[in-house]
Fold PGRC2 protein.
Amino acid sequence: MADDGDGRLRTEGSSDGGLGSGGAGEPPAGAAAAAAVVGGEMLLNVGLLALALLAAYRLYLRWGTRSGPGGAARQSQAAALPRMKRRDFSLEQLREFDGARDPRILLAVNGKVFDVTKGSKFYGPEGPYGIFAGRDASRGLATFCLDKDALRDEYDDLSDLNAVQMESVREWEMQFKEKYDYVGRLLKPGEEPSEYTDEEDTKDHTKQE
């Protein structure tokens, strides 16, 4: 490579004084290929963005429109419900509060039962987490599973979950305690319910006993 006298560098053996072997106005041979790759990547990114927007729109159609008049009526009905007296629940008793048979919605996390009625747009029959209404949601929350595989018809002691999953269950429990009313315990088979006094019942329901 040498200086050709006018301040430009030329490749040895090149007669046009430019870089490469093409003509004066011709881009290097690899430039066209690089431009094609960049163009292809841009088209791919635009396509992915379009798919993401389409997915978001479908989710809106599925869940967002369900909070119309029917959803508003359920929210209003839920807001009118009095605070639930503290009590304990068997699995069978818990299932009655699924938002369909009863407007109140309960679910259990790590042996604690929470009243999530005010979150009916999420936990109601048509909500994205409606599968957990009236059920023990611990396994589903621990494993990030939102289908029936995460539900058990018998009492679930969670003994097969690993340490990370159990820590996730405890974190979810804390989040529910901060946001929703704690109304009692989920009973193990053969366990007798506690008898709560009026004084206990008037305590802050978000605090664990």
Remarks:
- The longest helix spans residues 29-63.
- Confidence is low (pLDDT under 50) at residues 1-24, 56-69.
- The longest strand covers residues 181-185.
